[in-house]
Amino acid sequence: MNLPNKLTMARIFAIPVFIACFYLPDWSFTVLGAEIYVKHLIAAGIFILAYVTDTLDGRIARKYDLVTDFGKLMDPIADKLLTAACMIMLIGRGLMSICDFLLPIFTVIVIAREFLVSGMRLVAASHGTVMAAGVLGKIKTTVQSIALPIVLIVGPVCRAVHVPFDFISMVAAVFFTVWSGVDYIVKNRQLFKEK
Q1: For the chain, which residues score pLDDT lower than 70?
Q2: Residue 76, CB half-sphere, CA atoms under 13 Å: how many?
Q3: Which of 16, 50, 100, 128 has the greatest count of CB atoms below 10 A from its CB?
Q4: Per-residue model confidence as pLDDT tens digits over 34-57
């Protein structure tokens, strides 16, 4: 197994560790009147490191011609699992500064988009066609990877100072999730008409 694939597997193995962080003791400290839990900071750190491996494995694979079928399959799966795990673990924790009740809806939208796009890719692959990720898909992943740690780390502070930056970042992530999904369907609709 080459280095990019090892990094992809490390990202997958980081997911249960990330989830376990939410069950650590409730040690906390106060910042600007907001209670910050150490376990959420640790979880955010693991999440950020996992997304750094996503950037690294792709660059290394392309630079050193180490692209494999395993990497093509597992890399997007690892990304989707990490994002879904984070969003699911955030539900009901009251971390978003405003409209925390919308988090389950945001989660369903994000996971539904990933299922839809992955399903389309599988159908296309079964007919020998590779459906590459577009620019909007990459923007979506980047915005999600920024928004989720913001909610974990900064959400309670945003509530305390009455600046819903975390909520705005989550809305941006969901917006790009929907936009990239629609764009993907529209750009590849001809392929399915032919099939």
Answers
A1: 129-133, 191-195
A2: 17
A3: 50
A4: 999 999 999 999 999 998 988 888
Q: Which residue has the tokens 């999904």?
A: 181
Q: Is 23 helix (H, G, I), strand (E, B) or coil?
A: coil
3-194: CATH class: mainly alpha
151-183 pLDDT, tens digit per residue, is 999 999 999 999 999 999 999 999 999 999 999
DSSP state of 96: S
Are the C-beta atoms of residues 59 and 129 closer than 8 Å to each other? no
Q: Position 141: which residue type?
A: T
d(CA 181, CA 109): 10
Q: Work out the burial of residue 8: count CB atoms within 10 Å of its CB; fewer than 13 is exposed, 13-18 middle, 19 or more buried.
A: buried
Q: Side chain identity at 39, as an amino acid letter?
A: K
Q: Please give the distance of CA 7 from its chain centroid, rounded to a whole number.
A: 16
Helix (H, G, I), strand (E, B) or coil at 29: strand
C-alpha atoms less than 13 angstroms from C-alpha of 187 in its C-beta half-sphere: 15
Residues with Cβ within 8 Å of residue 194, at least 6 apart in sequence: none
CA distance 51 to 47: 6
